[in-house]
Amino acid sequence: MANRHLARTIALQTLYEWDFNNQHGNPEQLIKRNIEEFAPEFDDQQFSEQLVKHVQENLAKLDAVIREYAPEWPLEQITVVDRNVLRIGIYELQYDKEIPPKVAINEAIELAKTFGGPSSGKFINGVLGTIYKQMEATNPHANHNP
Questions:
Q1: CA dist., res. 130 & res. 126, Å (int)
Q2: SS3 state of residue 139
Q3: How far is C-alpha 29 from the geometric centre of its chain's CA atoms?
Q4: Which end of the chain is more exposed for a tag (fewer CB within 10 A), N or C?
């Protein structure tokens, strides 16, 4: 498994646990435990830590985007896995200028397919694809990291 994909997997596991426990707990300790348990040889812990930190810092904004682009799904009814995959994907798509949009979308889809339900990949693809199309329509000359 590629380092960045593994880093996103660890970030997803950490955000899942944190969210499942009503956003209580120490994410740094969760990341450390998840790395020790699932990837003891992992050498890109900083990427996981930064991703979790940025998702948590931007949680209200990310959740507002989910509500806007998935209005038929109340946030509380979206599975914990799908909700956190969306948060990671939206963060990378809209805020992390180092991650190309198509990479952010594809990575989120892969996480959803691996850890979500049978229709998670399609759901994530639909929401993130719509967000990306809106970004392109709003600012077609912006560097969306092609």
A1: 6
A2: coil
A3: 19
A4: C
Enumerate residues 6+ apart whose C-beta is below 8 A from 143. 97
Per-residue pLDDT of the chain (146 residues; tens, 9 = 90+): 478 999 999 999 999 999 998 787 788 889 889 888 888 888 778 899 999 999 999 999 999 999 999 999 999 999 999 999 999 999 999 999 999 999 999 999 999 999 999 999 999 999 999 999 999 998 766 655 44
Measured CA to CA, the distance from residue 125 to residue 121 in angstroms comes to 6
- The token pair that represents 113 in the structure block: 């397919």
Half-sphere exposure of 40 (CA within 13 A, CB side): 2
Distance of alpha carbon 127 from alpha carbon 26, whole angstroms: 29
| Count of C-beta atoms within a 10 Å radius of residue 139 | 10
Q: Is the pTM of this model over 0.85?
A: yes
**Residue 64 corresponds to which tokens in the numbers above?**
């507002």
Question: How many residues are listed for the chain in this entry?
Answer: 146
* Cβ contact 40:101 at 8 Å: no
8 A C-beta contact, residue 135 and residue 94 = yes
